[in-house]
Specification:
Blueprint (H helix, E strand, L loop, with lengths): L8 E6 L3 H12 L4 E7 L3 H11 L4 E3 L12 E4 L6 H10 L4 E4 L6 H14 L3 E4 L6 H12 L5 E9 L25 H13 L2 E9 L10 E8 L4 E7 L9 E5 L3 E4 L5 H6 L19 E4 L10 E3 L7 H13 L7 H20 L3 E2 L3
Parallel strand pairs: 1-2, 1-4, 2-3, 4-5, 5-6, 7-10
Antiparallel strand pairs: 7-11, 8-9, 8-15, 9-10, 11-12, 12-13, 13-14
Length: about 350
């Protein structure tokens, strides 16, 4: 954690559950020029947890409404999905820049409404799509920039888990108002990555199932996107995968890239490790590197290993601090988030009706 200075931008964090305590609070505290000032949580246990890590000077509030008078420079919203739009709306109307965890809203129309409000008020509004700074994503971007794969034809991307017993809570609720289920949770990441890499979606087809006994929301979902540039993305999110597939498989006209295993940053943050300027972060061992080849199986050593670019979640809040001080676009815009929500809404309709859905450009 950086030593706090009087010139730091003061940040209020709404919510101290998984997203707030594992991702946002540590990354904010590690960012030069930002200071975690106030946490909104009424839980005594979570307050004690936050104070133990970030010091006795940390302030607390019971309600997001209290932030309007807290003399802050940024509000970060890491509360349950259904609260994102109302809290963000209130913060923007109070004149406060906002970062919202994904998904920013339940619909693309709501996301564009927030974007319009932020633009009207001249305020920063950004969505926390941290998976743009995953090691595999950064490595694939470098491979695409080099042209080594040729013309990409198919992009396969997976966030698969083996969790045969539902954990409960709002993330697995069947109530549409909660905006739960894997389509809007992990699917938000995969769709965002696909659009950043390969451009706008023309058509979407999806299959969504509730597999586990007692589960209420989708826990095994497939999304197929046809991009305007011709690439086809096949995206898988599942909590019922007994044998995990590759994290990414990218097939081009010259070569393919296959990568197994997850970026290590989330596990490191969960274990209490923290990024420190000048020290290694987001690196993985050579045995986890992906491979590039043509016609060979990576499982039998085919192709050549490609060093994985270190993951860099801290880059998101570094870019937020720069945008607040210097102006300019934030690292992820609400309009980009709205485009991803267009795809998620199309996927939900496709799965429900068994049709392929056209997406308006």
């Amino acid at each position: 954690m950086n030593a706090r200075t009087d010139s730091d931008l003061r940040v209020g964090l709404v919510g101290y559950g998984l997203a707030g305590s594992v991702f946002h609070a540590p990354l904010i505290a590690a960012t030069e020029g930002l200071a975690l000032d106030t946490v909104v949580t009424s839980s005594p246990e979570r307050r004690a947890q936050a104070r133990a890590e970030f010091g006795e000077g940390l302030r607390f509030a019971d309600s997001p409404d209290d932030l309007a008078d807290a003399d802050l420079d940024l509000v970060v919203i890491a509360s349950p999905n259904k609260t994102h739009v109302p809290i963000a709306t209130a913060a923007l109307k109070a004149g406060l820049p906002v970062v919202v965890d994904k998904p920013v809203a339940g619909t693309a129309a709501e996301a564009r409404g927030l974007a319009a409000l932020a633009e009207e008020r001249g305020l920063l509004l950004s969505v926390f799509q941290n998976r743009r700074w995953d090691n595999d994503f950064l490595t694939l971007r470098a491979l695409l920039d080099s042209g080594e794969l040729g013309e990409v034809q198919r992009f396969e991307s997976r966030f698969e888990r083996w969790r045969p017993q539902p954990k409960g809570g709002w993330r697995e609720s069947g109530d549409p108002a909660e905006i739960g289920g894997l389509l809007y949770d992990l699917g938000s990441h995969l769709v965002d990555q696909a659009l950043v890499l390969f451009g706008p979606a023309l058509r979407v087809y999806a299959e969504a199932d509730v597999r586990r006994p007692g589960a209420q929301a989708d826990d095994d979902t497939f999304i197929a996107i046809t991009h305007a540039g011709g690439v086809r993305s096949h995206l898988y999110v599942s909590a019922t995968t007994a044998e995990l597939g590759p994290r990414m498989r990218v097939l081009g006209s010259s070569a393919g890239y296959v990568k197994y295993g997850l970026d290590p940053q989330e596990a490191a943050l969960r274990d209490g490790k923290r990024p420190v300027a000048g020290q290694p972060w987001g690196r993985e061992p050579e045995g986890m590197w992906g491979r590039v080849g043509s016609g060979e199986s990576p499982l039998t050593g085919g192709g050549r290993p490609v060093e994985t670019v270190p993951g860099d979640y801290p880059a998101y809040y570094t870019a937020i601090a720069k945008a607040l001080r210097e102006g300019g676009e934030p690292p992820v815009t609400a309009h980009e988030a709205a485009a991803a929500l267009d795809v998620l809404e199309a996927a939900r309709r496709s799965a429900r009706e068994g049709v392929t859905v056209e997406v308006a450009l």
